[in-house]
User: What shape does this take?
Amino acid sequence: MGALTKTGESNKQKALLGGEQGQYLTFQLGGEMFAIGILNIKEIIEYGHLTEVPMMPEFIRGVINLRGAVVPVVDLLARFGRSRSAVSRRTCIVIIEVDHENVKQDIGVVVDAVSEVLEISDENIEPAPNFGARIRADFISGMGKINNKFVIILNVGNVLSIDDLAMLGQASQTGSVEDAN
Assistant: This one.
């Protein structure tokens, strides 16, 4: 538990990327295994009723009411440039806390199914590939090796960048989403 209570900017930065702690929530998305450092995870909820918001990009599924707070919900598959996720009985929303200019913002992400929390040591994490992944390279913080299989470790700060999401939202309102990418 002592490792979790360390302070300092470099330790905080490593922990936000999942580096020092080494614990990741793994989940299925489009037939692939992804992971996010658990320090970014606030909670996991059942996929429920979402309120659609007009003129949002395709990857914004809508908003949910989470204990009185409005939380936007992002479809990660659509965010990665693929088609929207199909909703099944195992589909859930992972609530992730994103820090934007020292303000914490909760964002929900739709995943096909949550798998488990795994420990991945630093020596089992390879750098993000320059090619071969079907998502933007800056969305990947590394490739974790678990039982001779790779898990894509997401860089939450880039995938759920508030500025990036806002820019894409504005571009979709003017009809030029392609220009924002």
The chain is about 20% helix and 40% strand. The longest helix spans residues 162-174. Helices lie at 9-16, 76-79, 156-159, 162-174, 177-180. The chain has one domain: 7-180.
